[in-house]
Amino acid sequence: MNRKSLIIIAWITFFIGNAIFIFFVPVKTFQMYLLNMLIAGMYSFTIAIGNGLVNDYLSSKYSWVEETRKRTILGVISTILINVVLVLACNYANYIWFQKRDPANFFSGSMGFSNWITINIALLISAILHAKGFIDAWKSSTKQEVVQQKLIAKSANAQFESLKNQLDPHFLFNSLNVLSSLIDENPAQAQRFTASMSKIYRYVLEQKDKELVTVEEELSFAKTYCDLLKTRFEDSVSFEFQVNENDLRSYVVPLALQLLLENCIKHNFATSGKPLHIKIYSENGNLLIENNLQQREQVKESAGIGLSNIVQRYSLLTKQNVFIEKSSSFFKVKIPILTQKTSAMNTQPSNESMAYEKASKRVKELKGFYSNLISYCLVIPFLIFINLRTSPEYYWFFWPMLGWGIGLGSHAFKTFGVSGNWEENQIQKILDKEKYNN
């Protein structure tokens, strides 16, 4: 119990004590006022501090978020026990010690009815406090989850931007190397290469800031880039395109083909006698770049940007993997064709996303149950009071108390019992089945 809680209890004591003194105390003297405030304080501080200590102890041992069911069950049992004990103790002190009534009638007549009403009021207040503690715990957990996901998203975006920023200087560096070779070998081709390179570089500047481009756009650029390579290598390199029409409107990461084509040229030798054949085609939801393996004996040390760049960019956008296949005769890279645009912000794994959605749904269910419980504890005592005031000879309050109680029990069973687990198990079976089929 902190200082703020004690101040709140003091204010509650002040208002309750004054209300009882004004409406229910027949003899209004200063001595009676002080006695009334003392009794009100005894009830408020004893019951509030007792419940607060129990609530704090249970919260320190059992988390509302991770052990919701156990925390709730223990909270209900301990709350009922502690309130019955504390209320009876306060009522005994009030009626027997202060008012000097007969102890033999403590559990009957007006004292018995007062015990029952006071216990219900105490349980109502305790239920509100437990519900508040539950909501505060879930709010704190949800805020932490949101902060963690934002940090993950920001980190992923930073990585993605860093990877995209590699493309601009990488392409320019390799293109200038090709141009440098052509200037010595064939100045006329170098002029044509320079003109083509300006068009291609415009595409690089336009697309490098995008997360995804259509397969059709990437293929169009790749064909232009292949024409540029043909300018240098002539009949030493050949290209073949066989991409399904249905895949043209899907998506790949931008400049992936250009990087992979560069890898083919960089790591393989190509001559008129032994041409390098590069094939680009689609198969089973993947875009494949395959070449006959004619590996160079000595490869100039590379910056390691090309293939690793593609792998990392895909890992930030999707759980589908980039596959590399190598044999003695060919080298093949498979990059996933994505059917819809994604965002680097959507970086949390699907199981975390499902867990977060499940947690949010669970919060709504528990809030609904506690709202129902609080309403029950508030309305039923009021109906009992009306019943006993208007028609004490017929206890009609049992019918709404019983009907609503059955509904409340069913709600509790659905929220904390077997039903919820059964639904979760069935959902998991369906998800596992869909995952297996995919």
TrEMBL record:
Listed Pfam families: 2TM, His_kinase
Q: Where are its TM segments located? A: 7-27, 33-54, 74-97, 117-135, 369-388, 394-413
- Keywords assigned: Kinase, Membrane, Transferase, Transmembrane, Transmembrane helix
Q: Name one GO molecular function term.
A: phosphorelay sensor kinase activity
Boundaries of every 2TM domain copy: 357-431
The yes or no answer to whether the keyword Kinase is present is yes
Q: Which InterPro entries match?
A: 2TM_dom, Bact_2-comp_sensor_kinase, Sig_transdc_His_kin_internal
Q: Where is the Signal transduction histidine kinase internal region domain?
A: 158-236
A Gene Ontology term for the protein's cellular component: membrane
PANTHER family named among the record's database cross-references: SENSOR HISTIDINE KINASE YPDA
Q: Give the protein name, as stated in the record.
A: Histidine kinase
Originating species? Kaistella antarctica
